[in-house]
Amino acid sequence: MYDILNGSPNFTVNKPDGGYFLWVKLSDNVDLQKLKANLESEKITLFFGENFVQMEDREKEKFKYLQRRIRICFSFMDIDLLLPGTKLLREAIDNSCINCPKF
Hints:
The chain is of the alpha+beta class. It is built from three helices and four strands, in the order αββαββα.
């Protein structure tokens, strides 16, 4: 998963140090509404970072950065679904950029 996601100029992903999830940090050029539409069209369901704080805290300035984070959990996924799904996620993100570099 990490190798598939790593290297895009449109987002960064942390290298896991234990645990069963990755955090993806979207660049400012990624159009969030377009990304959400792309994910929906590919039938990809995931959680943006704001889902990991209480509802009343989501609009607080100190938590706004979470709107541009995606948490990907892979603890219960079959590898036969995980790798193709990760490739679809990367494509969805890269195709949601405005003036983002392509590679």
